[in-house]
Specification:
single chain, 74% helix, mainly alpha
């Protein structure tokens, strides 16, 4: 269990930022296009995931290198 604390310190905020941004981007698309989550096209979900994934390294300082 060596390194567990440092890994949790790194991953917990990164996952919160990733999931928050992912849901925010999907919600913005749903508001703009007046649709439900089931009606979002796959390319929008994939794009939202990509943008959210790139926001993690920009917003978090990695504790473990």
């Amino acid at each position: 269990m060596q390194g567990l604390g440092a890994t949790l310190l790194r991953n917990t905020p990164a996952n919160a930022i990733y999931l928050g941004n992912f849901e925010m981007l999907k919600a913005a698309y749903m508001r703009k296009n007046n649709c439900t989550a089931a009606e979002i096209p796959g390319y929008v979900v994939l794009g939202s995931a990509g943008v959210a994934g790139q926001s993690c390294p920009l917003a978090c300082v990695h504790v473990v290198s």
